Amino acid sequence: MKKFFVIAAMMVAAVSANAQFEPGTFSIQPKLGGVGSMLSNMSDYEFSGIKADKTANGGGIIGAEAEYQLMNMLSLAAGVNYSMQGTAWEDISFLGVDYKDRKIELGYITVPIVANIYLFRGFAVKTGAQFGFLTNASYKLTKKTGSTTVETDEDMKDQFEKFDFSIPVGVSYQFKVPIVIDARYNIGLTNVVKHSDESYKNQVFQITVGYKFKL
Prior knowledge:
By secondary structure, this protein is mostly beta strands. It is 7% helix and 67% strand.
């Protein structure tokens, strides 16, 4: 057993060693991952005292990022992604009807531009600016009464702003392979719903796995 842990530690050290590209290097990184998102100030639903709490909407993200390593401790990166966002509500039952999968789904083309500050080799903290462009928006709900199921899929694109601005903050780690694990929280700064008294902003957590190619 002791030998097993020694071998495992050596393998981790070998994978981690020499992670992160040298200064003056351009690279490109295809990536994909998962997204958990909400719209701020979106209300809970309530039917005669039965409450459906707001919850995170799960989605995916796919894209690519180009990076230039300015120096050992600093790089600049810009990317283009398709991000599935929105907000959702818990399932509830009322008067024999099940209300399931209630959600607002939003699709964005996102363009993040970030600075990566490498605190140690391979590990970076990051922040910058992200520009989002709405591609689709829909309201979805499944109602089930006994054996009868009714599904709602309503186009809401005309009710949402076409542009979204946010501040991404996060961390990443690059292995020697070089596989990169990246976790970010995008803080929405713009109201994405048209003609509303409330301000509804995107709140998005994403985690991606990418493979970085040196150019």
